[in-house]
Design a protein that fits this description.
heterodimer; A: about 170 residues; mainly alpha; 8 helices; globular; B: about 280 residues; alpha+beta; Thrombin, subunit H; 2 domains; six-stranded antiparallel β-barrel; 4 helices; about 35% helix; about 30% strand
């Protein structure tokens, strides 16, 4: 919370709304900051609370920017559910037990990228399924998944850097 | 004791997850979601906020000129529709048929204040609502094709499903008197669509025009939609034809709403006839 996490979080959700409305790159790329935002919630935030935050965040983006109520929410809830499990798996159980936060400086870029990969992949699998997978060729969905995953991971790095503390291990 | 606590936490988390996921999935899959009063308020908000910024963009692209052209285009379209109607009536008379005309369409100019283009379920918000006479299930057209269908209406705005939506299917005809099949968006580009289920005996060439068939209670017949491109045979039974849409969804702003005043009569007749 030292960095005024709440303010940054709200600003990044607003940024996601702007991306949804104005950053139309191609049908193959779905840019989303939301999985990174949920991953970066402070570890002391319990899973039940994270689920409610994910629901509120997803709904806000769905209703204000996407026009399709539920699509981000459906994809974001599993990320919130598995957030602590991902942190335990990649950064070790001590992180959550000690109530510490992960950061790129503390754990290095590869580990954080791996965490971003897992949450983005989970989010995109559900998002793309909800957004019409099955009505498009498998190859199209595969390319869309790959391109969106790469773009999401790249976007997730500065987001993680902004939301996590600067202290070294 | 600690283990029991963990299990309880796990169960509580799972319960919250399931409840919230069901709620979100319910909204996602519900056809009525757009009629929900919160959605109506949100549409108005979206139209005001995002529409305002879009308007600024349009200001720099000669907005005044566009509006004049739009009014002129609307008047010309009205005239064209009247001529088409007369031509169609004359054609029917000439082949000695005496059908009663129940398919009268009412046209109304409208402005798009918000449009999405980068999703599989795209939508648009129209700057006119129920107070302006917009009703759900009105078609949205331009002189260059079909843009969408109005799904929900609030006082001052209307929420519409775009043609660029995987749930949208339009009855289209190859040429003015050719085969009819469903036309759907290709899901990849804003200028591509696929015309399906065209029987193999029909002949066509790349560049042929595709029109609305008129086999729907929403859109009038003979609106040009696009031009044919490559084709392929599906399951050895029908053609699937790539269509290049005439409508540029990246630039569309001024549209015409079309409402079939006989639609309810047609639908009630269909309901009565249904087994």
């Amino acid at each position: 919370m030292k960095k005024n996490f709440i303010l940054l979080y709200v600003l990044l959700v607003a940024a996601q709304m702007l991306i949804c409305n104005y950053l139309h790159l191609t049908s193959y790329v779905q840019l989303s900051l939301l999985p990174a935002l949920i991953l970066c919630l402070p570890t002391r935030v319990r899973t039940s609370v994270a689920l409610l935050i994910a629901f509120a965040t997803g709904m806000a983006v769905d209703l204000i920017a996407e026009g399709a109520p539920g699509i981000n929410t459906v994809a974001l809830l599993p990320v919130a559910l598995l957030r602590r499990t991902v942190c335990d798996f990649i950064f070790g159980e001590e992180l959550v037990l000690r109530g510490e936060e992960f950061s790129i400086r503390k754990y290095g870029l590869p580990k954080v990228l791996f965490a971003l990969f897992l949450v983005q992949a989970l989010f995109l699998l559900i998002y793309l399924w909800a957004d019409g997978a099955g009505t498009r060729p498998f190859l199209f969905n595969l390319i869309r998944f790959g391109a969106s995953l790469a773009a999401g991971m790249l976007l997730g790095i500065p987001v993680t850097d902004m939301l996590t503390p600067d202290d070294r291990k | 004791m600690r283990k029991t606590g963990k299990i309880v936490t796990l169960l509580v988390n799972a319960a919250i997850f399931i409840i919230l996921e069901i709620a979100a999935l319910g909204m996602l899959r519900s056809d009525r979601a757009q009629d929900f009063f919160v959605s109506k308020g949100v549409h108005a908000f979206m139209a005001k906020v995002w529409g305002g910024t879009e308007a600024v963009k349009h200001y720099f692209s000669l907005r005044q000129v566009n509006e004049e052209l739009s009014a002129e285009n609307f008047a010309l379209n009205q005239e064209l529709m009247a001529w088409r109607h007369e031509a169609e009536t004359a054609k029917r008379d000439s082949i000695a048929r005496s059908f009663t005309d129940i398919g009268e369409f009412h046209y109304m100019p409208a402005t798009i204040v918000k449009i999405s283009r980068n999703k599989q379920h795209n939508y648009l918000i129209i700057g006119q609502g129920s107070e302006d006479g917009v009703v759900p299930h009105s078609g949205i057209i331009t002189s260059e094709g079909v843009v969408g269908i109005v799904d929900a209406v609030s006082k001052h705005y209307a929420y519409a499903i775009s043609f660029m939506n995987t749930d949208f299917s339009l009855s289209a005809r190859l040429g003015r008197e050719g085969a009819v099949g469903p036309l759907v968006w290709d899901g990849k580009t804003s200028g591509g669509a696929i015309l399906k289920e065209i029987p193999l005996q029909y002949r066509f060439a790349p560049g042929d025009t595709v029109y609305t068939s008129g086999y729907s209670s929403i859109f009038p017949a003979d609106i040009p939609i696009g031009l044919t491109g490559d084709s392929r045979i599906v399951n050895g039974a029908t053609y699937e034809i790539n269509i290049r849409l005439l409508q540029d969804f990246g630039a569309v702003r001024y549209v015409t709403l079309v409402n079939n005043v006989g639609r309810q009569e047609i639908e009630s007749l269909e309901e009565e006839a249904a087994p």
